[in-house]
Amino acid sequence: MELSELPHGVLAVLAREYLLCGHLIDRAGMPYVIASFDREEMGAIAIDEWMGASPVYTRRMQELLGFAGDDVETIFKGMQFDIGAPHGFLDFRYTVHDRNHGGFQLDHCGALMDVEPMGEEFVRTMCHDIEDPTFDATAAATNPRARMTPLHRPPREPADRSPHCAWTVDIEAAAEPIIEAGITAQVAAGVAAATPLPVITPRSSDGSAGHGGSDTEGSDTEGGDTEGGDTEGSALRDDYSGALVDRIATEEFSVPALVAIIEELCLQQHLLAHAFMVAVANRHGDSLARELGEHQFVGSAGMSSQRLAAALSVHCSTEAELQTPLDLLADVLSIHPALRPRSYVDVQVTSSVDHVDLSLLESPGTLDDSPFSWPALLRDGCDRAVAAMVAGVHPNLSCAAVEPPPGTVARWRVEVAAEPVTQQPEVTLAEFSTGTHFELPSPEPTAVEVRGRS
User: Fold this and answer.
1) Strand-strand pairing, 165-171 and 101-109
2) From CA 175, how far away is CA 187, in angstroms rounded?
3) Side by side, which strands form the sheet with 101-109?
4) What is the sign, positive or negative, of the torsion defined by CA atoms of 48, 49, 52, 57?
5) What phi and psi, each to the nearest 5 degrees, are found at residue 424?
6) Which position among 11, 228, 229, 284 has the lowest Cβ density within 10 Å, counted as fewest Cβ atoms?
């Protein structure tokens, strides 16, 4: 399965799934940080992690979707396509007063729902200690003189206060520019950050769809929702160069744009995982960074498979209902965020009647000298991450590493087992998050442009 072969409506749903899967990465990694240290150190590592990755992928998304600038509207557009702010699970509402002033509120914050049962100290760590520097780092990627200031935020008083939080965003010429954190430069210097952006080829004048990403060559399709085409023809967006739209729906984007957005959201996940391991290594050494990175990878891989398998089963054609677990697995592995984009981590999925093979091929991710990445972990024998991906699709699928053929970095074979396979403990632990089984809401039928006052 290739992303470009999927119907427009399915791609729109999957784009929101990739945002949420990226957000849930920390639900897999941070429990192990707390177990190794304490809540305060978890907060410090989370700050470094998000400050390392967010500015890098924010600028990439601006370039991809053509909305680069230095104003509040540009900041908000970047937040709308950031794995830190998945649509629905974090229900952001934006207001723009003018190019230098605006604000946002969260009508629902799934992250808060996860943390509130843990007590006020954890709420303060997330909503104060972590958000203050990381929100400003995200804003500073667009304008170093931008500041995000809370009007109110949790702990909630009263306990059912809504919206969950509200912030102002202001750009002041007299403000001291924020100096980018050192870990941002470390992440920006990595192989993942240097991955070429996907290419969005706009539709031709006859309405046919172009391509998004380097792995869709030769698969041009006519418009139409059932064969990978657009549903609304020329009404759909190939970029985000117009006015800010509050709660913009992924359905507004064309097939080429959605494919490119999804590929870039997958890379955001790789950048966040890389930043997490770099943050741990900077503070506690390489060995622990790899150990905690593997825990994070295994839990995240399993959760992503669960959500993608469910999304494909619900939103694809009725043919999906006739799929065997191995058929569904082959589709999920083909689009799993840990195994994309192909320009960074290349795999081959092959199916037969009684098994599926996943082959890891040479790619920039596997050739990278840095040990702090998901491709490096796979290259070096992190078989449990693949087992988690597999079991996330169906509990009766068993995975084992097999001898890779020449020219292949690693290979795993999946077969149907007689009994359910034991779930990886990282996946079980991560399932405390309400996001694991969160039902993403359908987008509002009409979006509202947010226009600033001159």
Assistant:
1) antiparallel
2) 26
3) 90-98, 101-109, 165-171, 146-152
4) negative
5) -60, 140
6) 284
Tokens 């170093």 correspond to what residue? 144
C-alpha 292, offset from chain centre: 19
Here the tokens at position 389 are 């991906």
Cis amide bond preceding 341, omega within 30: yes
Q: What is the pTM of this model?
A: 0.92
> Which of these, 403, 399, 371, 396, lies nearest to 385 by C-alpha position?
399
Burial 311-348 (b: 16+ CB within 10 A, else e): bbeebbeeeeeeeebbebbbbbbbbbbbbbbbbbbbbe
Cα within 13 Å of Cα(318), Cβ side: 0
Q: What is the pLDDT of residue 182?
A: 97
**The pLDDT of residue 322:** 60
- Assigned token pair, 119: 């007590």
Residues 74 and 241 sit within 8 Å (Cβ to Cβ): no
**If we measure between CA atoms, which residue out of 70, 67, 69, 72 comes closest to residue 97?**
72
**Helices assigned H by DSSP within 189-343:** 255-284, 286-315, 325-335
99: tokens are 């190019």
Q: Which two tokens stand for residue 161?
A: 């206060």
- Taking each helix axis from N to C end, the angle separating 255-284 and 8-23, rounded to the nearest 10 degrees, works out to 10
With contact defined as beta carbons under 8 Å apart, do 54 and 187 qualify? no
Residue 63: Cβ-neighbour burial (10 angstroms; 0-12, 13-18, 19+): exposed
3-state secondary structure of 337: helix
Cβ-proximal residues to 37 (8 Å cutoff; 6+ apart), any chain: none
Name the β-bridge partners of 150: 167
Q: Kindly report the CA angle at 438 between 433 and 440, in degrees rounded to 5?
A: 145
Q: One-letter amino acid identity for 56?
A: V
Segment 28-32 long-range contacts (CB within 8 Å, at least 24 positions apart): 28/295, 28/296, 28/297, 28/298, 28/299, 28/300, 28/303, 28/426, 28/427, 28/429, 28/430, 29/276, 29/292, 29/293, 29/295, 29/296, 29/299, 29/300, 31/429, 31/430, 32/292, 32/295, 32/296, 32/426
Gyration radius of the chain's alpha carbons: 21
Per-domain residue ranges of the chain:
299-437
Instruction: Read off the amino acid at residue 362.
Output: E
Question: What pLDDT shows up at residue 443?
Answer: 83
Averaged pLDDT, groups of 10, the chain, 454 residues long:
92 97 95 96 98 98 96 98 96 96 96 94 96 96 97 94 96 96 98 96 55 37 41 76 94 97 98 98 98 98 96 70 86 97 97 96 97 98 98 96 95 96 94 90 69 46
